[in-house]
Specification:
Blueprint (H helix, E strand, L loop, with lengths): L1 E6 L4 H12 L4 E8 L3 H11 L3 E4 L12 H8 L6 E4 L7 H9 L3 E4 L3 H17 L3 E3 L2 H9 L8 E8 L17 H4 L9 H9 L1 H13 L7 E5 L5 E7 L4 E5 L5 H9 L22 E2 L6 H12 L3 H17 L8 H11 L7 H20 L2
Parallel strand pairs: 1-2, 1-4, 2-3, 4-5, 5-6, 7-8
Antiparallel strand pairs: 7-9, 8-11, 9-10
Helix pairs in contact: 3-4, 4-5, 5-9, 5-12, 8-12, 9-11, 11-12, 11-13, 12-13, 12-14, 13-14
Length: about 375
Amino acid sequence: MKRVVVLGSTGSIGTQTLDVIAEHPNDLKLVGLAANRNADLLRQQASLFGVQHIALHEGAVGSNIPSGMDALIRLATMEEADIVVISVAGVIGLLPTIAAIKAGKNIALASKEVLVAAGELVMPLIEEHGITLTPIDSEHSALFQCMQGYKSEQIESLIITASGGPFRGRVKQDLEGVTVEQALNHPTWRMGGKITIDSATLMNKGLEAIEARWLFNVEVDQVQIVVHPQSVVHSMVKFKDGSVLGQMGWPNMRLPIAYALLYPERKPNSLRPWNPVDTPALTFEPVDEATFECLGLAVQSARIGGTAPCAMNAANEVAANAFLRGELKFLQIPEVIKHTLLEHRVLVPTLDNVLTTDKHARAFARTLISHL
């Protein structure tokens, strides 16, 4: 029986994580829950699962629920927990992740921004404390599964697949007047607002390339992004002998969540099984990086290194959320990121430098947006 804390329990990944836990009552027990500000749903979840330890990142008036970053860290390090699911949006998950690792908790990671902003800090801590980090993103789960029994030095490249988002096949001039509603209309996945915008700009693939670089100890230029509209092949590993292993299945986040929580076990579930004859035509195509500039900006930040990916991530988060609020045009998102990277003075990624970079990059991006 693994005892699980879920940070970000009211979001898309969080609610599906609770579904997985409910389906495996003999293997998983929920012992802690945290949300951003949705106190009502958090209480409902706690009542349903009989959980006593809960927290909010942003306190709700009159909720009497412990709140703030310290409350999240207390949950992430509680003695009763064996594994902590990090599914909070953005870089908020960094401090609880580091605290949980130092407390000897295994990590199931859905917040890719943690490794994007601070992979150089987090991965050595994981090795130092001897804990297991299992990725929840479907692409990284696929790579993780394909890597079982192999070493990073055997890898030629990692091939991450992308659905292409709602604007696949469009050119830049087609995206001038894109609305929020159009950008949120993802053809395959139903996710939170910010990550759905990242999927529309293809920034999510840039973030995933950086996350893969740290998870699997490869260079970012060893990570290839290909468009795969059917979203059946979730990612592939190409080895130095030319062999390619891929992981396939219907696009459903409950499978990678279950694998992350139950690893190294594989347990039966109620998900619809995939059959190759149901999708006989699996196609792949290159990414149009001239139209979707965010991907290249993310990779560029990884090549620069240091705190550059942290600055890039912060600017993207501010820009994506500004677009969601109607304060920024779709094609201005990469412009904000580009100017923030140009302004950023790269530092060695200590924890203080990462947190300072995140704060300063956000402030610069907000100021830039206010003048556009």
